[in-house]
Design brief:
- The protein contains ten helices and 16 strands.
- By secondary structure, the chain is α+β, with helices and mostly antiparallel strands.
- The strands form five sheets. It has a six-stranded antiparallel β-sheet, sandwiched between helices. A three-stranded antiparallel β-sheet has the order 5-9-6. Strands 8-7-16 form a three-stranded mixed β-sheet, with no helix packed on it.
- The two termini are 16 Å apart.
């Protein structure tokens, strides 16, 4: 069976009539070797997914947030050792021990902001609200640096750090420093009422034969941890830039893709906005994104110049769903 047919078979569920779908791209040696849309971006309007459909990236956003921080560090506007209390005057004392590096690598111990939102809240939370919550918190889960625990709170505070240090709002900093230089012309950090997503995929939940519109949640407006929308064609440009020094010196990529180490010397498989793994003897850097109505992944094997991008607009299985699909595509493309 041809590679294209094998990948098609993997996504047959996403291609059923009238169902929310997926956008899939495989890049090899700088060339797009597979690119296809499945199913619908907008079920109500019967609009198909294409290579230009913009999906909410969810936590795939974190690599872009990390890149903003790396640019500030390269420009000597920030240091890995800068603490939260240095950035945000009046931050609780525990912020004296939390550094930019702790935030990037999820070793801050910050309380999960999602757990601090009352069940009765209906207005969307924003990054500044996350900071306000932390200002009223007097403790952390653990001593900063001692444990690796995934934290959306940390990345919301990184977005606010970008704003504080640069003097620009986060969406504009991203646009001016990443999206415009790479001609990612349809990629943006979405703020309702301020900017608009063209060719937008809406999020859905599938319950048996029922399709429920589940596009936004109370946490969907937090930008630093998951607020970017992008398409296959724009992510291709991002992927290719990661082989160059167009955005930052290549040494920062090596740091971003190096396992972290806790204070007591334990290694963990996360860099700066990237998960790390060894799969089938390949060194992989990747990130999944999972939120209400969306499941995504960008999965890269840099030494092979090989990347898989999967964007989906449905609540379908756990966050690992797209990682499992990426592993299957690796098996198809590298059968040996």
């Amino acid at each position: 069976m041809h590679t294209d047919e094998q990948i098609d078979n993997l996504f047959s569920d996403y291609n059923k009539s009238g169902m929310p779908g997926a956008a899939v791209m495989v890049i090899g040696e700088g060339e797009i070797i597979f690119e296809k849309g499945y199913g619908l971006a907008d079920v109500e309007k019967n609009l198909p997914v294409t290579e230009n459909t913009n999906f909410r990236l969810a936590s795939v956003t974190k690599q872009f947030t990390a890149m903003c921080i790396l640019k500030l560090i390269e420009n000597n506007e920030l240091k890995m050792s800068t603490t939260l209390t240095e950035i945000f005057p009046g931050f609780p004392v525990y912020g004296n021990k939390i550094t930019i590096k702790n935030l990037l690598q999820h070793t801050s111990g910050l309380i999960d902001y999602e757990d601090l939102i009352d069940d009765t809240v209906t207005v969307q939370v924003k990054d500044k609200d996350v900071l306000d919550m932390m200002m009223k918190t007097d403790s952390t889960y653990f001593e900063p640096g001692s444990v690796h625990r995934y934290s959306n709170t940390g990345y919301a505070l990184l977005a606010l750090t970008v704003e504080k240090i640069s003097g620009r709002n986060f969406r504009d900093y991203l646009r001016v420093n990443i999206f415009d230089p790479l001609e990612m012309n349809n990629t943006l950090a979405f703020e309702n009422g301020i900017n608009e997503i063209r060719n937008r995929a809406y999020g859905y939940t599938i319950n048996g034969n029922e399709i429920e519109f589940t596009d936004q949640s109370v946490t969907s407006a937090v930008l630093g941890d998951g607020g970017i929308y992008s398409s296959l064609n724009d992510i291709y440009k991002w992927d290719q830039a990661l082989y160059t020094d167009k955005l930052v010196d290549k040494k920062y990529f090596l740091e971003s893709w190096t396992p972290g180490v806790t204070a007591d010397g334990k290694e963990f498989q996360y860099g700066y906005g990237w998960h790390l793994e060894n799969y089938d003897n390949h060194k992989v850097v990747y990130h999944t994104g999972s939120t209400r109505g969306f499941r995504n992944i960008i999965y890269r094997i840099p030494e092979k110049n090989f990347t898989i991008v999967i964007l989906t607009n449905r609540n379908s299985g756990p966050e690992s769903t797209t990682l499992d699909l990426a592993h299957k595509i690796v098996g198809i493309c590298f059968p040996d």
